[in-house]
Every structure is written in structure tokens, then in C-alpha cells.
């Protein structure tokens, strides 16, 4: 297990005694983290479409307006451009806004404010000002939603200097990484894989302990092949590792978690031992973030590789609706086949 799993950062005003831990879903972990930080930091507020009275389209903010009031949990107009501009403005004036883009495909009207302003505050002012904001984004496919509701567009934002791009893959990592994101002085795009919002539960103590950003998490040790993934695909990748283990193949599984900045050192160290790498992601293959990892391996780990890097991805098309949706997403069999190709080519 990666040492980062045990690293924490607790705020000075944390509650003296945390309540008993409960098994909760990923979406409940998001709510729990938001409530904790709002209780302990008056500058944290939540805004977005339907986040207040209705508790959000996925219920991530359920009960927060009743607990903290409409001045700290703001229902906004159905206007993503305004939400992004208001969020940047609040962050520039000493608040820590956590905005919600209702779906990943709704982010595009926000790009001007995110790219041209939020991501440049530190650079533009030579470090005198930062932009401590979080944009929460329900991300990815697999829930039979219509167009603009099932996109995996993380690679667009990993190309922007000044942004952090984070994607949890479990309830515990969602809680710890969201706390860290809110406490981060620079803007964070926080992608939440909606396919696994309620897929399983995990014990998550509400203790205010953040997980470190900017590190990969080694979820499973292995010696034959390195499987690198993030978000909802972590589940299928771990299942593929189990299936490979049944055939005598030892697969190491790495959850990237923070895509920008990338903890390439953890990936490189693993590949130096296994000699093979399979990268798994939901986004289309061309110019997906997996291409950046593959390029870094070619540049910095060429002599460690015993076989070409394999990529298991979505296809270069919009996600199909609805019958072919799960065929589009990388599955266990495709991951296993890629690992076997890597082993056969070595």
C-alpha cells in the first residue's frame, strides 16, 4: 500500500471527538466532507443549480441548506457561466466556494472563467493572490443519461497550468481528497465518477483528516504488469487484477487520483519492477490523459519497458446511448486481454 494512504492533514479547528465511523457511499462521503468543512470553516460555501432546496441532482448537498442556511448554500440560476464567474469572484474575496457543475458536459460554458481567470490568479499576481475554489463535477458514463451527461473530459483540464485535477474512486478517497481540495489555495477541478456514487459502501470516519493531493495510490502490489487507472475504472481494473491472479499473473494496480499534477514517480517505480504497463481510462483514446502517461514512460522509462505500453480506453466517438453504453466503457475482459498482450510481447 502506498504510504500516501496514511498521510493526513487535520485543520487546527477540527472537532475534538469525531463521531463513530459509518459505512457510507461515495455520494454520502461527499456530503459528509462538505458538512465537516462548513462546520469548521465559515468561509466555505456551496453554490450551484438546485444544490440548496433540492439537495442537488444527485443529492450530494442534501440537507446542507437546512443546516447552514441559504446564504452559505446558494441556489443559482441555470447558467453555468454565471456560476463560474461568481465562484471566481468569491474566491478572490477571501471565501472558499465549492461550486457544482451539474454534469460534466455542462462545464464548457465555465471554461472562460476557469482557464482565463481562476487558473491564472497566482501567475498573474506573481503569487500575491490565489483562487481557493473547488468545482465539483459529476463525471463519466454508465448511468444511461442523455447527451452532455456522460462525458469524460478530464484531459481538457489537465492541459491547463494552474489547475489541480482530482478524481476519487472510493468513498474514503472522496472524503479525504475533497477536504484537501477545499483547503488547497489554488483552484481544483474535482471530478466525481457518478457511476459509482452508490455502487458500494465503505467505513469513512468523519474526522476531518484529509488525504494528500498530488500522489498516486497503489491499491494492489504486483510484479508482472502495472495497471494504471482512475475514477470509476478502478473497480474494473481491480477485478481484472483478480482475474489475472487466478491465472498466475501478478498485477499491480495504481489509482492516479490526482491527474494534475501527476505523481509520475510512483508509476515509473512500479514499471521499473514489472516492465509492463496497461493504462485504463473511460475517455476517448486519442489525446486522452493516458497518452500523457504513455509519453512520459517512453521519455523517462524506455529502458525499463519490456513491451509496448497498452491503452484500454473508450472509443473515439461520443458515448453511445443507451444500449451500447457499457460496451463503450472499458471492461474486465478488455483489461485482461491488454495485460496478456503486454506479457506476450515482452
Automatic annotation (TrEMBL):
Its cofactor is thiamine diphosphate. Keywords: Oxidoreductase, Thiamine pyrophosphate. Its EC number is 1.2.4.4. It holds the Pfam family Transketolase_C. InterPro entries: THDP-binding (IPR029061), TonB_box_CS (IPR010916), Transketo_C/PFOR_II (IPR009014), Transketolase-like_Pyr-bd (IPR005475), Transketolase_C (IPR033248). One of its GO terms (molecular function) is branched-chain 2-oxo acid dehydrogenase activity. GO terms for biological process: branched-chain amino acid catabolic process; response to nutrient. Transmembrane segments: none annotated. Residues 24-199 form the Transketolase-like pyrimidine-binding domain. This is 2-oxoisovalerate dehydrogenase subunit beta.
